[in-house]
Known about the structure:
The protein is about 25% helix and about 20% strand.
Amino acid sequence: MIRYPIPLQQGDTIGVTAASSGVDEVLHHLVHNAKRQFENRGYKVNIGDTVWTQNKSASATKESRAAELMAMFKNREISAIIPPWGGEILMEILPFINWKEIDPKWILGYSDTSTFLFALTVKTGIATAHGPNFVELRSDEWEPVASKFIDVLQTPAGSTIEQQSSEKFQSKWQHDAPDDPYVYKLDTPTEWKVLGTDNVELEGRFLGGCIDTIRHLVGTPYGDIASFQKNFLNDEPILWYFENCEMNATDFHRSMLQFVYAGWFDNAAGIIFGRSPAGQDVKGFTVLDSMERIKELTGLPIIYDADVGHVPPQITFVNGANGKVTVNNGKGHVKTTLQ
């Protein structure tokens, strides 16, 4: 009952719109570089007006951002949408979206973009892709794990795609470093971990995003998980994936408790957490402490330090798709079936 977009093909047009933050003029070259890389790979690029402006934590007014995003969904010449990056207050545009007028079309991104991805899948049953942002694809060579996004977007409904965990991840952002060979500077060995054991296999319907932003959808029409499972998943369990951008350990824990109390985990297969940025401990309380308490509270298996989110690279997770995730001795394998 999940609806999947038409597969992306070379020659198709990518729409770029800033539904959250736009790009300051001093960084416009990042957008131009990413555009050139897509064009070099055989795609066309249509960049919206919102991308080039930024004022008070948003690219434009909420009405303008919603209108441009809807226009790209309705534009039959545009086959997929990739915002430049995330931001802070995408949530403002949700009441201005005509959800019933959206036909399936791939939209890709993370951070605050995941707020829209989450809401679109939950409200309409349209699959969305949680993966790299447009400006992170500006180098001549795309990092192998992140670059799998293009394979995901090219996969037809009914088919399966497999992705592997990274060999190394980037421990901190180095925005001024040259793109040689990738935007990411991979410097630390990757190890996916499982609470209480070394190996695990989980299966369910993928759903998730950036905790910092999607937590605010609890109790709104855009976060009605029970209805989503009933209307679009035939009550299949959800395999949750989450990532944390800026929350400290106690804020992270409060957010996870909110999900528990809201019933988001009542019918779940497990939880996958991306790597958390450093420096989030609060008086000895860590993000790992929170995960252990959530596992004890819910009984759900938990994978952590996975390739998701703001500590790149990241695997592309498809909201709504059937997923099987295996961890064996620190290596992760993600099998996604678009059915």
